Amino acid sequence: MTTPAVPPAHEAGKRAGPVTPAWTPEHEVDAEQAAALLAEQFPALRAASVTLFATGWDNTVHLVGGEWVFRFPRRAIALRLLAHETAVLPQLVGRLPLPIPFPELIGVPSARFPWPFWGARLVPGVELADTGLPDDRRTRAAVDLGGFLRALHDPALAALVMSASGPAAVLPHDPMRRGDPAVRGPQAREWLARLAASGVWQPDPAVFRLLDEAEPLGPADGPPVLVHGDLHQRHLLLGDDGQATGVIDWGDVCLADPAVDLSLAYSGFAGPARAALLDAYGPVSPEREARARVLAVNLSAVLAEYAHAEGRAALLREALAGVSRAVR
User: Fold this and answer.
1) Under DSSP, is residue 175 helix (H, G, I), strand (E, B) or coil?
2) What are the boundaries of the signal sequence (predicted)?
3) What is the pLDDT of residues 7-22, one digit of tens each?
4) Cβ neighbours around 162 below 10 Å, total
5) Superfamily of domain 12-121
6) Which of 41, 160, 216, 242 is the most exposed place for a label (fewest CB within 10 A)?
């Protein structure tokens, strides 16, 4: 999910007519089109079933033969993200304690579809956002995530990735400025204003106190680490037993302050579960915590707006809960 630098709400009062949602697709590949593309480029999958698996801001995802997932970009902005995924993910496979996608089959632009696409073996599990797990049953996943982030944020891993050639060697430094409360705080306020205006969210003074206190911090000045870059409740997968089974959707992978990923500790977990996550991860300074909490509010508000517009009730409940957790 790549959010716009200026949220649609910022321009809403300046335009005539409805605002086009940021996630509106430029190309949308349905199951029939996906099957034709796969038959053309990967003949071994010619007879495989193809069903719509998921949609997001940047990609349409189809399940192929019950064991492959293929990601087809929906917007031109996703092409740069796809290049980063296909360059970085192969270097991370086997180096992290949770499964991640491994792009094995790379599709190329053709007369049928103008953009590249890729396929990986299915990472099993259900999005945390869809589990409906109460906070007091999230501890197992929290511990798993804390250990995962500890490994991902190891400076040696960033050095390894940056020593490669190609797109991985030129990963941007927090291009969406997600680690900067001076940017993400005002954006969060605008998304929250939209939610309040539509009656979806009841304004909470604690949220605005957090933003007021954290926005002056600005970005961190420490060395960046490798981050997932868009880690929220849709991108952490869980099994039936509540354990984490994988981390998906790596298009925003970049170099940034660890707070960018730690935002999920504050939007997706609370109480003992969050404490267990942070125990598994390691020390987090008050400034890093504040930056993470601001991004937790921001991303949760964006998810809530998307869920409300798209009629995704479970995601809306989880996203609104994420706003509340971020100040607890």
Assistant:
1) coil
2) none
3) 333 333 333 344 677 7
4) 13
5) Phosphorylase Kinase; domain 1 (3.30.200.20)
6) 216
